[in-house]
Amino acid sequence: METNVQQALILFAHGARAASWAAPFERLRDLSQARMPGTSVHLAFLELMTPRLPELVATLLAELPAGAILDVTVVPVFLGQGGHVLRDLPLLLEELRQQHPALRLKVVEAVGENASVLAAIADYCVAAPGSSPLP
């Protein structure tokens, strides 16, 4: 790996009016950060919450040491490929690429489109009939 490259992982979620909605995403960010100590892991939102993706990327770029390159992977934390993932996110990414040509930016599939994620969710669902109910 190049020594002047800073790695960042951005978990990209929709956002909501209720602050409590972000709690599972914050836990996911923290769990991911614990498993990737050499990468800065962040949470960004499409709308209704901050930081939004463009502002987070601008902040990360501003914090870079002189001459460093930012290599960002965006993980859409959406269960499916709806309009936000198919239309809104590509537009945001294109704007970021135009505004920051030196930025290394890639996006992976939405988490709900990944076979191992779906298998983990199915495991949870299958175990649910024997689980104790919520209080």
From TrEMBL:
InterPro entries: CbiX-like, Sirohydro_Cobaltochel/CbiX. Gene3D superfamilies: 3.40.50.1400. It comes from the Bacteria. Pfam families: CbiX (PF01903). One of its GO terms (molecular function) is metal ion binding. Signal peptide: none annotated. Keywords: Lyase, Metal-binding. PANTHER family: SIROHYDROCHLORIN FERROCHELATASE, CHLOROPLASTIC. This is Cobalamin biosynthesis protein CbiX. It comes from Janthinobacterium tructae.
